[in-house]
Amino acid sequence: QVQVVESGGGLVQAGGSLRLSCAASGSFFAVDIMGWYRQAPGRQREMVAMITNSSFADYENSVKGRFTISRDNAKNSVYLQMNNLKPEDTAVYYCKVWVVWMPDFRQDYYWGQGTQVTVSS
Questions:
Q1: pLDDT in tens, 53-107
Q2: Among the four residues 35, 71, 77, 79, which has the most C-beta atoms within 10 Å?
Q3: Could you tell me if 10 and 120 are in contact, meaning their C-beta atoms sit under 8 angstroms apart?
Q4: Rounded-to-integer distance, Cα 103 and Cα 90, Å
């Protein structure tokens, strides 16, 4: 099985910063894309940022210039540095990991349990 564990959420004032971490573990062959998603109350889950195993990154428009995604391939970990946080960033943040299985290189994705980020005005 695969475990995806997030940490780093919390309560912060507007303009503040938080850093989320996520680590994947299991008997998979490799980790491919890693990403962060968020879901606010009454809204659909949306992609925040994604990063490939060659460190190509993509961001949702509203977080460009404020959030930075990075990864440590040796630790199967992904991070999200969030600066200049706004109240509208308040949501549960989820880590999503695509892993590769041998012998057929089949890919599956797995979600973490989510971590709450609350930004007060």
A1: 999 999 999 999 999 999 999 999 999 999 999 999 999 999 999 999 999 999 9
A2: 35
A3: no
A4: 41
